[in-house]
Amino acid sequence: MSSESDHPRDEIQDLLDGRLDGSERARVEQHLETCRECRREWQTLARVKSAVATALKAKDVPSDVAAETVAALDREDRTEESRRPGAVPALRWRPAAVLALAAALAAIAFLVLRDEKSPTVPDAVARDYSALREGKLHLQIGADEPRALQRFFAAHGIAFKTNVFDLGMMGYRLLGGRVHTVRGRPSALFVYRGEQNKILVCQMFEGSERDLPRGAEVRRHGGISFFVYRRDARTLVFWPEGKVLCVLTSDADAEEVIALAFAKAVPT
Amino acid sequence: MEKRARFEAAALPHLKAAYNMALRLTRQTEDARDVVQETYLRAYRTFDNFRPGTNCKAWLFTILYSIFVNRYRKEKREPATLSVDELEEKFHRSLVAPERTEPGATGRPPEWTDREVELAFDELPETFREVVLLVDVEELTYDEAAAALGCPIGTIRSRLSRARKALYVALEQYARRTGYLKGASEQK
């Protein structure tokens, strides 16, 4: 105990900050029981500590701070990549992606020429995926906790209940999300990253299978119909959940994307 | 797992705390954004130095503080204007004063509002603000706070002690001004 044995001030602070082991702690607590002055000091400092922790604790971060930070990391990856040719990073150019993108752009150009009104839902979703991959579309919030993201969507104009799922068991980690639009409808968009830089994007927006064009491969699982489209190297799997249409898009193996959708679809 | 994914898993959950720390140190939202972004970039570049299993938040704050000190600290580092003896004396006088002057009081001290705490905190010298943020708000250990601020543990302990006492003295002054403890002001 301190040299100031009548009033062990340093130890009172240590007690407050959880720095005493069992026997020291017991000794100081015993002292507090008998010394009114020290008890009062301890209570007062505890009150200050607690008030400070409450009043100064982190408030919400502006959503664009998270997006800017993730974008800065993307830029850093690109810079690093240009210094180190040969590596295969995520969200960056690589020959296959360039070809795939060129093909996608050609396909989009064709569709736009064919139907000037707007692309189909799968084309719009595939385009969003490419934009995310290229860093043209940013996440508004970085979050690895599904509920934090659900709260974000609820607070930013998504009127339906979002179902942000945890895919950790399947090797995909939640990165964050943004409030987006699919053909003018608000969409909750969230992104996962898997091994080997596979990116998985989920979007949820109000709609039904009637919004989907012909040409889907239909799979049935657990009483739900899944509509599978392939756009270049991407696989898109749509399924309805009540009045909401969900879609998973990824450049992972098509059967893996379908299996992920099967695992996460909620029967209604 | 690749570096980027490992980094994001370890560091992104502390973004809110980092922004709060940056904002409370710089007091400017634009500067706070820049400090956070630079912190994350530098942390990412030096992520190989981070030892898994140690406190990632403390490691980020060490980087953040160094960026703040070197690039964003605008105010001169002001010395504490109150001597240790003066502060101790004021603190202990505040401790005993209300009870002597309000024998009829219920005994439960009035709660301070968050605004009052923030005001009192903003009046503290920077050396005190830092340590209060790291230990009381972000719950770093003394060792982690000492590493982040680059000072001995004894300095953390003494600054923390003085900071809390100074906060209490300031908060009690607000309380007197707003009339919680009418008798106390007549006591002097």
Describe what you observe in this structure.
- The complex is a heterodimer of chains A (268) and B (188).
- With 268 residues, chain A is of the alpha+beta class.
- Chain A has helices spanning 9-16, 22-34, 36-55, 63-83, 95-114, 121-133, 146-155, 254-264, and strands at residues 141-142, 173-182, 185-193, 199-206, 217-221, 224-231, 234-241, 244-250.
- In chain A, strand 7 (234-241) and strand 8 form a beta hairpin.
- The radius of gyration of chain A is 27 Å and the shape is elongated.
- Residues 87-94 and 108-117 of chain A have low confidence and may be disordered.
- In chain B, 71% of the residues lie in helices and 0% in strands.
- Chain B has helices at 3-11, 15-26, 29-45, 56-72, 84-101, 114-122, 126-137, 142-149, 153-177, 182-187.
- In chain B, helix 2 crosses helix 3 and helix 2 packs parallel to helix 4 (56-72).
- Chains A and B meet through helix 1, helix 3, helix 4 and strand 2 of A and helix 1, helix 2, helix 3, helix 5 and helix 6 of B.
Gyration radius of chain A, rounded: 27 Å
The helical percent of chain B reads over 70%
Q: Which term fits the overall shape of chain A?
A: elongated
Q: Share of helix among residues of chain A?
A: 40-55%
- Beta strand count of chain B: 0
Biggest beta-sheet profile of chain A: 8 strands, antiparallel
Strand content of chain B: under 5%
Q: Given the structure, what is the number of helices of chain B?
A: 10
> Order of helices and strands of chain A, N to C?
HHHHHHEHEEEEEEEH
Strand content of chain A: 15-25%
The biggest beta sheet of chain B, please? none
Please state the average pLDDT score of chain A: 82
Low-confidence stretches of chain B: 99-105, 183-188
User: What oligomeric state is this?
Assistant: heterodimer
Span between N and C termini of chain B?
65 Å
Q: What pair of chains forms the biggest interface?
A: A-B, 45 and 49 residues
Q: What is the spatial order of strands in the main beta sheet of chain A? A: 1-2-3-4-8-7-6-5
Order of SSEs of chain B, N→C? HHHHHHHHHH
Distance between the first and last residues' Cα of chain A: 65 Å
Mean of pLDDT of chain B: 83
